[in-house]
Design goal:
Blueprint (H helix, E strand, L loop, with lengths): L9 H12 L19 H18 L3 H20 L2 H10 L4 H7 L11 H17 L10
Helix pairs in contact: 2-3, 2-6, 3-5, 3-6
Length: 142
């Protein structure tokens, strides 16, 4: 059993405490608690601007561009940093054709799992890859 919990309220803290209290003590456990390093609201807003710009350039809706970017650029970052996610993505997406995989991305958490560092890498990758195709993307103000 492997559990990862995000604690952001009294209720979620109570769930974590209950989980700890119900551990089978005949086994040894490792517990790690660390601050959550989530992507920022500004990073999220920039990503959504980029989806609109990419969509406009390629003739996609912003949602279609988002699904493409999540599948093409975001999944490899998550899998590299957490190889266990490969099995998850493989299970969820196996047997689907490419277009179906892109549609499925609408319902799969990918970028919402990013740390700030991963979100920055994702944005940089989109900027480099799509910029090379001629897409003019918004550059954040420093």
């Amino acid at each position: 059993m492997s559990e990862s919990l995000k604690i952001y309220s009294t209720d979620t803290r109570e769930v974590a405490v209950a989980l700890l209290m119900n551990l089978d003590l005949s086994k040894k456990w490792e517990v790690t608690i660390k601050p959550l390093d989530k992507r920022t609201i500004d990073q999220n807003a920039l990503q959504h601007k980029h989806y609109a710009e990419i969509g406009k350039f390629h003739g996609y809706t912003p949602g279609e561009a988002k699904n493409f970017c999540k599948y093409t650029y975001a999944m490899p970052i998550l899998i590299r940093d957490d190889p266990d996610l490969f099995a998850y993505f493989e299970l969820v997406l196996s047997g689907l054709e490419y277009e179906q995989r892109l549609l499925a991305m609408e319902h799969i958490d990918v970028t919402s799992l990013f740390s700030k560092k991963q979100a920055s890498e994702y944005t940089d990758t989109i900027y480099q890859q799509q910029g090379a195709l001629g897409v003019q993307l918004t550059i954040p103000e420093q």
